[in-house]
Design a protein that fits this description.
The structure is a homodimer of 294-residue chains. By secondary structure, chain A is mostly helical. Chain A contains 13 helices and two strands, in the order ααααββααααααααα. Chains A and B meet through helix 2, helix 6 and helix 7 of A and helix 2, helix 6 and helix 7 of B.
Chain lengths: 294, 294
């Protein structure tokens, strides 16, 4: 088997593991009856790329940490991500009727239920952390710190979202700063928690974070490109949406935005060189993020 | 000094302590610049009755627990309460332009910022729990359990809010159930955490919870009465608001609703009889809740 094939197989396996675990988590934690339970389950279980949880598991793989140990931690940034998408789509934010080809949550369940579902998911994510750390065999004394990390990321998401809605960016640097606070912050959390179980050195931890920060930005730049070039039936939303926000394509055009994404992904991968061939799968993953077409 | 006077002085002192601590907490945790920081500070620091944090401190007083130990824990239900009021007032929920005589948060900061402020406050409340338990000298092994308690209360708030918005109650029992899930759940959490530091027996814990549950309902019933009879300049919202919801006054009329509130407050106080005169201040507090006029 060639190295690339092994990487592809590993990523597909982890993706399947994440989907199974998400279903189990929802059954355990979102089992309530009524509109709110249904709305939360749909927000979390509707099809997604699962980039963040796979990132956690692959960061753990740098240290040969069993993905089963990390799966609880891996889901938490995904739950936050799902909640943030519900808010993004609201009439007062992007006013998006569709999300990946399906009615967005407020269209399906009403605005109040959508807002409350996001709120409730956020709480559930926080409350899942103690058990997730225990499963990862990360010492309990790290809990308060991990809780603060999670909180800082949520604060960063909210602040960057406000700036994004204000269309406050007029340069690429400003736009990078906004998206570093959104996609970037969740990617850094996801990768950092995966590495944490392997007891990284300070330098290694910084390398993983640099990787995740750059990859998160690359991911967002490609998102903006696909919003313009993508086929609606693949993207599940009308091409050209997010018109109220400033995008990387607005500031750079499609060709330069693609180049930026490639550069960011290369910078990301370069940060992992100190791990040698242990980082091969993670680097392949980064390549996949910028070559995706949906 | 008479017993009633002592109780009044104690409550005023605790109330002042709560206001000081809220200001310090906001300075430490909500200090960010920009719209979001300002919105969060206003949501938390605008004038309020501080019933929940005072309840925590008074429940601790049953065991002579120093209020300074409990103040961090006492603030957490208040932060959740503040966030839930922001959501309550949104156009998709009560559509309330005013809150206690001031523009509601979405009127002052825009709807997106208000929703994100509530979301961010919720996260901050969760992340404050480890330090608050440590200050209360409650063992760290209780953290995961306290986190789950907090999460269950938030879930209860969200579910009851959905039912309330659906105007799902047609009997007093159904309406009591909804408000037991909202005001009641937060009151039970607030009082339960106060008692926790005193290492209550199972029977004592149940008594404190019964007290808080009944007092929470009494509080809500009086709220509904004041919405009809209250003077707008005191209440800070137009009398007769909350028209989309079913209220205790709708189902009972004003006179019977007042009687219900008094009965609930008496049931609440009766639950504390096993504490003897240690519960005097807490009973006076309950009396104040149902005789308030704003």
């Amino acid at each position: 088997m060639q190295p690339m094939d092994r990487a592809t197989a590993v990523m597909a396996g982890l993706r399947a593991k994440v989907d199974t675990a998400l279903g189990q988590w929802a059954a355990a934690h979102l089992s309530g009856e009524g509109v709110l339970g249904a709305a939360m389950r749909e927000a979390l279980l509707s099809p997604g790329k699962r980039v963040r949880p796979v990132l956690t598991l692959l960061a753990g793989e740098l240290y040969r940490v069993d993905p089963d140990r990390l799966i609880g931690l891996a889901l938490i940034p995904e739950v936050i991500h799902a909640a943030s998408l519900v808010l993004d789509d609201l009439p007062s934010m992007d006013d998006a009727p569709l999300r990946r080809g399906r009615p967005s949550l407020h269209m399906a369940y009403g605005e109040a239920a959508a807002i409350l579902a996001a709120f409730d998911l956020l709480s559930r994510a926080h409350a899942s952390l103690p058990a997730a750390l225990e499963r990862a065999r990360i010492p309990r004394r790290r809990l308060a710190e991990a809780q603060l990390e999670l909180d800082r990321v949520i604060d960063s998401l909210c602040r960057a979202q406000v700036r994004d809605l204000e269309a406050a960016a007029s340069t690429v640097e400003e736009l990078e700063e906004i998206h570093a606070g959104k996609t970037g912050a969740l990617f850094v959390l996801a990768a950092g928690w995966g590495a944490l179980a392997g007891r990284p050195t300070g330098v290694e931890r910084q390398a993983v974070e640099a990787f995740a920060r750059n990859l998160g930005l690359a991911f967002q730049v490609i998102d903006d490109v696909l919003d313009v070039t993508g086929r609606p039936q693949r993207l599940g939303k009308p091409a050209g949406k997010d018109a109220g926000r400033v995008t990387f394509v607005d500031l750079l055009g499609v060709a330069a935005a693609r180049r930026l994404a490639r550069d960011l992904a290369e910078t990301a991968s370069g940060a992992l060189d100190l791990f040698g061939d242990r980082a091969d799968t993670l680097k392949r993953f980064a390549e996949g993020v910028v070559t995706r077409d949906a």
